[in-house]
Design a protein that fits this description.
alpha/beta; binds S-adenosylmethionine
Length: 231
């Protein structure tokens, strides 16, 4: 079992395992944009407090979560503590029809900086999933020398830009932040979607590409209603 550090890494304020919680609307907006298969199981292998499996279940999909830590105390969609990057496979990961939807840790493992962490998680997810892999990532993540191959060898089927900025407070201080916990997101996010069964898309010169879509912000009235429901 992995021991969680209770304090953030020295000299920084990041959560030691990058537990940053997105609200459920972030997943609902993805589901508004793409037609997901209804005959596969959905797994969030970095599920935290299970907002992604909850959002999927609310739309009628079979969804579960695992995480290095049980962050949701006995939640019915939580399938157990599991290291996505470890050597062992989880039963669900051996499923014949499996899509992975997740908000991967970005840079920290046990308080230590791990370069290319989100990419490692995505490559692992791509090695496990049989259908789609959808990853929530900062917009800036798209441009990188190191990740070039992730976009050319494992061609994504599209990039969806969230025009409404999500806020992602550290999960361990959400209660403390109270009503303001999800105010004022400072970073732009995208969903990047890969489909294991699709051939890479190429342009007229054979170069791989992925189309870009904009996810419109929610109506202000919907935002107010959703906040009331979540409170
Ligand atoms: C960005 S947060 C996801 C938040 C989540 N969507 C929620 O609703 O709380 C990343 C999560 O990945 C988990 N994590 C970090 N390293 C992991 C690993 N090697 N294997 C599995 N989970 C890991 C963290 O514990 C954290 O809960």
């Amino acid at each position: 079992m992995t021991v969680e550090l209770s304090a953030p890494p020295k000299g920084g304020t990041r959560h030691p395992w990058d537990w940053y919680v997105e609200e459920k609307w972030v997943t609902h907006r993805l589901l508004d944009m793409i037609a997901l298969e209804t005959d596969v199981t959905y797994l969030d292998p970095c599920c935290g407090q299970l907002h992604i499996p909850e959002a999927l279940t609310e739309r009628g999909f079979f969804a579960y979560g695992t995480d290095l830590f049980d962050r949701a105390g006995g939640h019915s969609l939580f399938m157990g503590e599991h290291d996505l990057l470890g050597d062992q496979r989880h039963m669900l990961e051996a499923s014949n029809g499996l899509s992975i939807i997740f908000n991967p840790p970005f840079s920290f493992q046990n308080g230590r900086l791990v370069r290319g962490l989100a990419e490692k998680c995505i490559r692992r997810a791509l090695s496990i999933a049989t259908h789609k892999v959808c990853a929530l990532l900062p917009l800036k993540w798209l441009a990188s020398e190191g990740r070039y191959r992730l976009f050319t060898d494992e061609t994504p089927i599209g990039v969806w830009i969230l025009c409404e900025r999500p806020s992602m407070p550290p999960g361990n201080i959400i209660e403390q932040l109270g009503d303001n916990a999800f105010d004022h997101g400072k970073i732009d996010y995208i969903w990047v979607v890969w489909d294991k069964r699709r051939a890479p898309m190429t342009d007229f010169q054979g170069r791989p590409f992925a189309p870009t879509f904009w996810i419109p912000p929610r109506e202000k009235i919907t935002v107010k209603a959703e906040r009331k429901l979540a409170a």
